[in-house]
Specification:
The chain is mostly helical. The chain has five helices and two strands; from the N terminus they run ββααααα. It has one domain.
Length: about 170
């Protein structure tokens, strides 16, 4: 609720949530799975932003798949000199393979079906959420903060903003 007292004004978290719900109710979620996926009527800024994000996803996947340590130690700061270090590297390579499959599939959808832009953005936005959930199950001990952990929060906010604008 909104309170005013003299020049002081305060909006409660409940009022903010209700305003957010009102905004969400006005969005057209039918565009996530459009009747005609060959056409996207939204902003080209969204399409260009998504293309850049997909490029980053493909590049990240290739690093995990093709770099000798899978990016585990060089980028992620995971100590691979420990017993089982080769298993850690193998898991990073496998992770890169799965990431590359998903990234290529999203690129194909992006090119062939522009109308799926909101769906692709929603899919990409769930990535940092699921990384966060996984990190709560068991944390990884690293020498520094890996890029994924460092940028998960801001990535989610940006991706959700792009998603909301796309619909």
């Amino acid at each position: 609720m909104h309170f005013e007292w003299g020049t002081f004004s305060y909006t409660t978290p409940l009022a903010i949530c209700l305003q957010y719900i009102d905004l969400m109710m006005e969005l057209d979620f039918s565009t996530v799975l459009p009747d005609d996926p060959s056409f996207y009527g939204g902003s080209q800024f969204i399409r260009i932003s998504l293309a850049l994000l997909l490029f980053v996803m493909v590049a990240r996947s290739c690093v995990h798949l093709f770099v000798s340590d899978g990016g585990a130690q060089r980028i992620g700061g995971v100590d691979t000199s420990v017993e089982g270090g080769n298993n850690i590297i193998a898991m990073f390579h496998q992770w890169g393979a799965i990431q590359l499959i998903l990234a290529v599939l999203l690129v194909v959808l992006y090119i062939r079906y522009p109308g799926f832009t909101p769906l692709i953005l929603l899919t990409v936005a769930l990535d940092p959420v699921m990384r966060y959930v996984a990190s709560r199950k068991r944390s990884v001990i690293t020498k520094g903060t890996p890029p994924g952990a460092r940028y998960n929060g801001i990535a989610f906010v940006i991706l959700m903003l792009l998603f909301v604008v796309s619909i």
